[in-house]
Design goal:
By secondary structure, the protein is of the alpha+beta class. It is 31% helix and 27% strand. The protein has three helices and twelve strands, in the order H-H-H-E-E-E-E-E-E-E-E-E-E-E-E. The strands form two sheets. Strands 1-2-5-4-3-12 form a six-stranded antiparallel beta barrel. The protein is elongated, with a radius of gyration of 33 Å. It starts with a helix and ends in an 18-residue tail after the last strand. The C terminus is likely disordered.
Length: 265
Amino acid sequence: MFTTRRWWEHKALQIGLLALVVGGAWTLRQTQATLVMELYQGVTRPLQALQPGISPEDRVRDARLLELQTRIVDLESQNQKLQSLLGYVEKEPQTARPIIARVVGRSADHWWQQVTLNIGQNAGIKEGFVVKADGGLVGLVETVTPNTSRVLLVSDLKSQVGVTISRTSAKGVLRGDSSVEGVLEFYEKVPNVKVGDLISTSTYSQKFPAGVPVGRIKSLDLKKLPASVAKVELFPPIRYLDWVTVYPGPENIDPAKSHLENQQP
């Protein structure tokens, strides 16, 4: 009896602390720490009232200020893009000046396939009009409504653009690859090309005017059958299009050239 009593006197404090810890852990789990948060709020609220701090009105005012600053930065960015486009447009002949449009729609499921512009028939846009951006060719107007236009991008798998190598005049068809790159299939089995060669639209193209920049040869596969192919780095910022320019399609094209656009190599 004496031994049990001495043991209890030595272990009572430890058992009590252990029970307190276990009980506290169980309480936290059951209440999801709500009790601790309430205690914290109860202790800190008086201290916060005594210390100078940011009032709710100041927080709202700061949030509004940040919102305005964000809008200003966005407007400045848009203004710079428009100034750049306007400078480019003013260099064009008066009769050939394009229409400036903004991309207002783009589906995540069709990110590399198409975009929607904020202008349509009321602004003079028609199906078959050519769309460009900084860097060169973007695509072709596919459908038009009175106030919007849908553009088939050069990165679409369905897109086919007749192109030529600027250095050697080797020709082929550029197809979209649903990415920032395209696949160029040459008409010749062993074309005179090399990595780094620049590409533009071909004089054989019926859909696009000749000489519009498209991209640069990134890699070559001259052993590909039935024709050599190349990976092309597209110049236009297809990934994040914003402002574009829209031109009428080419006119008075020799019909004998039209079949080369869609011809298989």
